[in-house]
Amino acid sequence: MNLILASNSPRRRQLLSLFGWEFKVVPADVDESTREDEPPADYVRRLAAAKARAVGAQVGADGIIIAADTTVVDGAEILGKPVDAADAERMLNQLRGRSHQVLSALAVLRAADGRLLVDCCHTEVPMRDYDDAEMQNYIGSGDPMDKAGAYAIQHTGFHPVEKLSGCYANVVGLPLCHLTRTLGALGIRSDEQIPAVCQSTLNYSCPAFESILRERL
Predict the structure, then answer these.
(1) CA-to-CA distance for 88 and 49, rounded, in angstroms?
(2) Which of 29, 31, 37, 69 is catalytic?
(3) Which residues of the chain have pLDDT under 70?
(4) Whole-structure pTM value
(5) Which burial class, exposed, middle or buried, applies to 3 when counting CB atoms under 10 A from its CB (0-12, 13-18, 19+)?
(6) 69 classed as catalytic
(7) DSSP SS3 for 90
(8) Are strands 99-110 and 115-126 parallel, antiparallel or unpaired?
(9) CA distance linking residue 43 with residue 45, whole number of Å
(10) If you placed Cys at 150, which of 57, 91, 137, 154 could pair as Cys (CB 3.0 to 4.6 Å)?
(11) CA distances (Å), origin 103, targets 40, 58, 60, 79, 125
């Protein structure tokens, strides 16, 4: 199996490695602009599929391409990566003490026959009411600058999220149980117990994995 991750994200690389497979990284270069009146779920599904196809066009017929796109959504607003520290402050001010949504779409392309499967994970994310000093220290660390919504749920110094009840890996950027069932639909299965490995790695007791794995695409 020639497995390819169409992303240069270190977080996605770490999570995909939990399956125990060797894989290559071939980042996808696609236009990530939103379209007028495009719902956030449609947006991430479109981008994940576009990334998979873009990389699929570069590899051989034995390639299995995994692509993903994650976005932070507050109401109808899509929050991308901040352009500067002021933009990060705006986003973190907007999100604190409230819940928002994180959507991740996965696209798995089998190059041999062009079969493309797309799945989407939705997690409700309750942010804690962090104070101004915490927020400014976090912004000063530089960590928010390459994160959608200007935060990383796994940041131990800031830990912006509390009482999460959905898929934690989704908020990190690669929902592993959704990926497990998507790959399974193509007959690709890992020897690893992904829910257990995921929870151990992320130090999170997941209440959602059983229901996710029971669902069909």
Answers:
(1) 28
(2) 69
(3) none
(4) 0.93
(5) middle
(6) yes
(7) helix
(8) antiparallel
(9) 6
(10) 91
(11) 8, 27, 30, 11, 10
